[in-house]
Design a protein that fits this description.
Elements lengths: L1 H37 L1 H7 L9 E5 L26 H9 L3 E3 L2 E4 L7 E7 L15 H6 L3 E7 L4 E3 L24 E6 L16 E6 L6 E3 L2 E3 L6 E8 L2 E11 L2 E3 L11 E7 L6 E8 L4 E7 L17 E7 L8 E8 L16 E9 L15 E9 L9 H9 L4 E2 L2 E5 L5 E2 L1 E8 L3 H6 L6 H6 L3 E7 L8 E3 L7 E6 L13 E7 L6 E3 L2 E3 L6 E10 L2 E13 L2 E3 L7 E3 L4 E7 L6 E7 L6 E8 L18 E7 L9 E9 L7 E11 L4 E4 L3 E3 L3 E9 L4 E6 L6 E4 L6 E9 L8 E8 L18 E2 L2 E2 L1 E8 L49 H20 L1
Parallel strand pairs: 3-12, 22-32, 34-40, 42-50
Antiparallel strand pairs: 1-2, 1-4, 4-8, 5-6, 5-11, 6-9, 7-8, 9-10, 11-12, 13-14, 14-17, 15-16, 15-18, 18-19, 20-21, 20-24, 22-23, 24-28, 25-26, 25-31, 27-28, 29-30, 31-32, 33-35, 35-38, 36-37, 36-39, 39-40, 41-43, 43-46, 44-45, 44-47, 47-50, 48-49
Helix pairs in contact: 1-8
Length: 850
């Protein structure tokens, strides 16, 4: 008995030791956690990482802000005027391609410096506690761990950032004056906005020092000084002991052209120059022919840096390229002048005759390159698509204008073009886009013609438009006969990748039904709603003929609020949604006003854009209705049921003679949409499910889901009218193959098209914030005939009898990690637990032996 007791005690003590090890590990982990929480600032400092290759100089054109006269500042008021400032403005400037990596900052011919910015990528910017605009100036200057020195190279001028804060408000101001904005601002980026010019992998956060050389004061031998051309400055950052620097030069903003030019007599001939102004600055190139004709193009100066900041910029800053129509001008000489914008802040006056500044002159002669017999060896033609855009957009004749419209969300995949009879009484317009190969463009270029359409018609390419649902002779378009309302646009450089699928080049045919003239039985006619058309592009090559056809329909575009054809009702709730649905093209700007006859209600939303659900930009999925929609939300919780509201929808900006009232209707405040739904446990073959009851206040749909209420959708009903529906059988798109819990959800028809469009539209009904849904167990009934299975013979497992012989362990599979599991902190967890169990088991076995 004594031996047994001693052995048990020894084993028990060993187990306690193991348990103590576990407790000790937990204690250590707790201590580390406490240390982290009590020494958070020190730990954060240790985590600051500086990318030593990331320091760079950037520049931003003084002309970017063309409104308030403040310059392109990170503070309001600026070009965005209402809600974008600080670090967001930097993101916008980058996105517009106006903020570039460049080692020079120029003083433009009007006497104003571009903005200069120095930037370094670093983590831990949170230490500087950026405000809501990202401003960290004061915290940066007071920090012992962050500093920057900006000094003249081979000179004695320095920039004292602190001195450039005195007398200026550090926060955004409302007055329209630059004098209230500091000439030097430090911004902390914790949101990784730098994007294109970030270097390496991490970090993508950092610090910007924004300088206005027009107002910043330098110190030179104890006296005040200013930036001057010909100087170079080095900015040296010291962040937690890590030093990194960049430099920038102050240059005169000039431009240059070639000594002479010899362009071909193409419809689109490009002439280039260069300038030291900031990228994104608009400049003008003007051709004056010997007979007095002139052509003037205003384009943006291009930058010459590579994405990722690998090229820090050079002098001159970049190229300026303009395209001119030189068709039919072979042999004519011309003078070419490059203009910089003038000083006036009003954008319309930048290039007026009194204000624009000539910075370079040259001359040239147009060469004859026409070859009417040119043939295309081989080509590709594919992926024709209809792209709709709102009426009133006039810039549709160049790839750059197309790219701008796409970028502004004004272009969508839409197989219909609508006539807005309720508002503008005008048609939307449409591009028919055909993807092709680079080989077609020399053929067009070398063909005779004074404009793009004529050169296209005389080339190996052709286009025909034919009505397909005419009772008699169809309406047709033949460009050789008439091109009114049609513009052919060559896109050899992929105007915007979002409309391309296969090729990198293409041809756009712009159709404007407001001007388009078709022919039927030899007589000129117009498009009318209710017609269908095919637009076919043909390319003749040495290897044969290629064809690609695009189909679309014309319709009378209606606009309505909420559900089409139903009385307009607005629910009584804190977030009542009012949805404008329209068949006119997406991408337009609207104003929606909601008032009441007694003047107690007056709400307005302006500059809101109708968007669709199509795969390309704003448009719809081909064939779906409505084309697009826009929603606003208002608080109607204090309005009584039955209150009358007047809803007015007005088109703004793009349409001619805007604003134009498209819709004016009355609405009534009603109880919010509601639904109840129930379903019982059931069994079946997995092909359908039965909903016991659903009650929909406003009609809608029932959907079936697996996994959760809003999990994968496996079935849905057709449109259900408002009211009670019992014993509703819902066919499943995906059969259930094993027992599961199924969920049914009641949905509204939010876009009023009586088609189930969830999740893009048709949100679920909600009651007090909860989705109207039910769930039930579903048992799949087997349809197979059972097969007899041999009955397994139960074998009793003998009880182990302890003996003095050593126990033999049953072999187990060894884990890949050597058999030791790890805890969440990376420590050995399974090993300790296993040791405890083994020790206790050993104690028990030892006791049995004794």
């Amino acid at each position: 008995m004594t031996r047994t007791t001693h052995r048990f005690r020894a084993v028990f003590i060993a187990a306690l030791v193991a348990l103590s090890a576990v407790a000790g590990a937990s204690a250590v982990a707790g201590a580390v956690s406490d240390a982290t929480s009590t020494e958070g600032s020190d730990i954060a400092s240790q985590q600051v990482v500086v990318d030593n290759e990331s320091a760079k100089s950037l520049t931003l054109s003084w002309y970017r802000d063309d409104g308030d006269g403040n310059g392109p500042y990170p503070f309001l008021p600026n070009e965005y005027a209402d809600d974008t400032s600080g670090i967001d403005m930097i993101a916008n400037a980058e996105g517009d391609g106006h903020m570039r990596v460049d080692n020079s900052t120029a003083r433009n011919p009007g006497g104003n410096w571009d903005m200069a910015v120095v930037h370094v990528e670093a983590s831990g910017v949170e230490e500087l506690a950026p405000d809501e605009n990202g401003v960290v100036t004061q915290n940066f200057l007071q920090s012992e761990n962050w500093s920057v020195d900006i000094s003249q190279v081979d000179g004695n001028k320095t920039l004292n950032i602190s001195a450039n804060q005195q007398g200026f408000e550090p926060a955004p101001v409302s007055a329209n004056t630059s004098q209230s904005i500091p000439p030097v601002v430090i911004l902390g980026d914790t949101e990784e906005v730098e994007g294109d010019w970030s270097t390496g992998d991490d970090p993508d956060t950092g610090v910007y020092v924004w300088m206005d050389p027009n107002r910043a004061t330098l110190s030179q031998n104890g006296e005040s000084a200013n930036f001057s051309t010909g100087e170079e400055y080095r900015a040296t950052f010291d962040i937690h002991g890590e030093t990194v620097n960049t430099s920038f030069k102050m240059v005169e903003g000039t431009g240059s052209l070639n000594e002479s030019y010899a362009p071909g007599n193409r419809f689109t001939s490009e002439l280039s120059g260069s300038a030291t102004l900031a990228a994104g600055t608009e400049m003008q190139m003007e051709l004056t022919f010997e007979n007095g004709d002139t052509q003037t193009e205003t384009v943006e100066l291009e930058g010459n840096y590579e994405l990722g900041g690998d090229t820090m910029g050079t002098i001159p800053n970049g190229t300026i390229t303009a395209a001119f129509n030189l068709s039919g001008r072979e042999g004519q000489s011309f003078n070419l002048t490059l203009y910089a914008p003038g000083t006036p802040r009003d954008d319309d006056e930048y290039f007026s005759a009194e204000n624009r500044i000539a910075v370079a002159n040259s001359s040239g002669t147009v060469q004859d390159i026409i070859d009417p017999n040119y043939t295309i060896p081989a080509a590709n033609l594919s992926d024709g698509k209809p792209l709709g855009l709102p009426y009133g957009i006039d810039d549709t004749s160049t790839p750059a204008e197309i790219a701008n419209s796409i970028g502004d969300g004004e272009v969508g995949y839409d197989d219909s073009v609508a006539y807005d009879s309720q508002g503008a009484q005008a048609w939307d317009t449409m591009w028919l886009h055909y993807e092709t190969s680079q080989s077609v463009f020399p053929a067009i270029s070398k063909s005779p013609g004074r404009d793009a359409n004529e050169k296209f018609v005389n080339s190996p390419l052709s286009f025909e438009l034919t009505q397909t649902n005419a009772d008699g002779a169809p309406k047709t378009l033949d460009l050789a006969q008439n091109d009114s309302g049609v513009t052919v646009v060559q896109d050899p450089d992929q105007a915007d990748e979002r409309v391309y699928n296969n090729e990198s080049q293409g041809v756009f045919v712009h159709l404007n039904p407001n001007e388009l003239v078709l022919y039927q039985d030899g007589e000129p006619v117009q498009m009318e709603p209710g017609e269908t058309y095919e637009g076919t592009m043909t390319i003749e090559t040495e290897n044969g003929t290629l064809n690609e056809t695009v189909r679309f329909e014309t319709l009378e575009g209606e606009t309505w609020i909420n559900n089409k054809g139903a009385p307009v009702e607005v629910p009584q709730t804190q977030e009542a949604e009012i949805t404008l649905n329209t068949q006119v093209a997406a991408g337009a700007e609207w104003t929606i006003d909601v008032t009441s006859p007694d003047a107690n209600v007056s709400e307005s939303w302006s500059e809101i854009v109708n968007t669709g659900s199509g795969p390309v930009m704003a448009g719809k999925i081909a064939g779906s209705m409505p084309n697009s929609s826009v929603s606003v939300t208002m608080d109607t919780s204090d309005l009584e049921y039955g209150t009358t509201l007047v809803i007015n929808a007005t088109r703004i900006e793009d349409p001619p003679n805007s604003p134009i009232t498209t819709l004016n209707t009355t609405a009534e405040v009603v109880a919010p949409p509601s639904a109840t739904i129930s379903m019982s446990d059931q069994s079946g073959d997995g092909q359908s499910v039965v909903v016991d009851s659903v009650n929909l206040s406003d009609g809608g749909f029932v959907s079936v889901h697996t996994g959760s209420q809003l999990g994968p959708t496996v079935g849905s009903t057709d449109y259900l009218e408002a009211g009670q529906h019992s014993g509703l059988e819902v066919a499943l798109d995906e059969a259930v193959s094993e027992d599961a819990t199924l969920y049914v959800v009641a949905h509204q028809d939010t876009n009023g098209n009586q088609q189930f469009d969830f999740p893009a539209e048709d949100d679920p009904y909600e009651t007090e914030g909860n989705v109207a849904a039910a769930s039930a167990a579903y048992t799949v009934e087997s349809t197979d005939t059972p097969t007899a299975t041999p009955t397994a013979t139960a074998t009793a497992t003998p009880t182990a009898t302890p003996t003095d012989a050593p126990a033999t362990a049953t072999p187990t599979e060894t884990p890949d990690d050597g058999g030791a599991e790890t805890t969440s902190d990376g420590g050995p967890g399974f090993g300790i637990a296993a040791a405890i169990v083994a020790l206790l088991a050993a104690a028990f076995v030892r006791l049995r032996r004794d």
